[in-house]
Every structure is written in C-alpha cells, then in structure tokens.
Amino acid sequence: MTGAATAWSQAPAANPFYARTNTFSIFGAYSGDSSHILLGDAENRKLLEFGVAYGRKLLLNRVVNWQYNGELLPVALESDPVVVNTVNWTSPTVFTESGTGALTTPCVPSSGSFSNTLSGITYSYTYTFTCTRQWTIGEGMSPVGFQWNFLPRRKLQPFIIGHGGSMYSTRPIPIQEAGSFNFTFDLGAGFELYRSKTHSVRAEYRYHHISNHNTANQNPGIDNGLFQVTYSFGR
Q1: Where does the chain have alpha helices with state H?
Q2: What pairs with residue 103 in β-bridges?
Q3: For the segment 151-160, what is each residue's pLDDT rounded down to a tens digit?
Q4: pTM of the model
C-alpha cells in the first residue's frame, strides 16, 4: 500500500501549456486593396496567397512561447488595375488605336473628344478609358520568421508574428517597369485558439510589403493589409 502511494505521488504532472515543439501549418491570406500604409506607393492592388509553414519552439515559459516560423508560398497571386485606352480618329483619316497599361493609382473610367486645326488640317478623335484587372501568378518564401504567443497556458492566446523573404512572379509587378523578383516582409498580430494540445486555428492581420529594393528601373512598392487564417498541428 505504501509503495502504491509513493508511485502515485511521483507521477509526472500534466503539461499545463498549449504549445508544440514542432508545428506544421496550412494557410490562406487575402487583401482586397493596397495603399501607402508605410513604404509602398502602388494603390488598389489585390493579393491572394496559399501556403504552408513550419514552426519550432525556441523558448517556453508561463509568459511567452517564442517560436521560429518559416513560410513557403507555392501560390501567390497579385492583381493590378489596368486601363484600356481606345482612341477613335475621325479626321484627317478614320482609324482606331488602343493600348493598355498598369497604373500606380486606381483606374478611373472616362471618355471625351478632341479637335484641333493645324495648317488647315483638322485633327479630331474621341477617346475612352475603361478599367480591368490583370492577375499575375507567382511564388515566394519567407525563411526568416518568428512568432511570439503570449499566455501559453490558455487555449486562446494573443500573438505577434513577422517574416522576411522574397517573391518571384511570371511578369513584373506592380507595373511593367518594375521587377519580377521582389523582396517581402510582414508584421502582424492576432489570436490562436487551441482546440487541443496539438491542434489550433489562427486568425491574424498583417502589414505586408513587396519591393524590388531598386533592382529594377522603377520601384513603387506595394503595401497590403493582409488577413490570414491558419490551421496548425504537431506535437
């Protein structure tokens, strides 16, 4: 009887933390607009991302769970506003010409006409500006990243997160004079809800920046407010 009581008293205490040593995640993120939040100047850009992530616990105590966090983006879609310019010449000859181009500012539809006489010749045309969008597919990775979860003994934990990385797109973004290879970084905050000791769901908001760091002719940069949902598991 005494031996049984001793064995019971020496049984290990239950793990009080909602935290994993190794974490694997899948996520989706979306931003419906861009503006000059901090560094970027290109407006009205959309961003859609699907990716996976790996995390590794670095430090755990009753206040904070500090983790390495790296992300891989096999699908990164960026959308630019594009203006379609159609000019219908009526004098001195009749013909139509058109062209397209990405803007750093939002596209605004418009139309009008022009007429002027030079050296007895009248030049006249009507023009129409219409708006569309151009989606560009790319991929990216953020190998440098950290996540800090606070109050890790609770199922619902506030956290902050940040990454640095790069992105490659199939054509230059956000304008033709910019580059197809860009650098990225983000900084965000949100809440992580643990459904069990090993499974959780995160919801967060991030400031996300894309820039070629002046490696191309122009570098307007893109600032997005990104909303992300992540499902994580591990042990």
Answers
A1: 2-9
A2: none
A3: 999 999 999 9
A4: 0.86
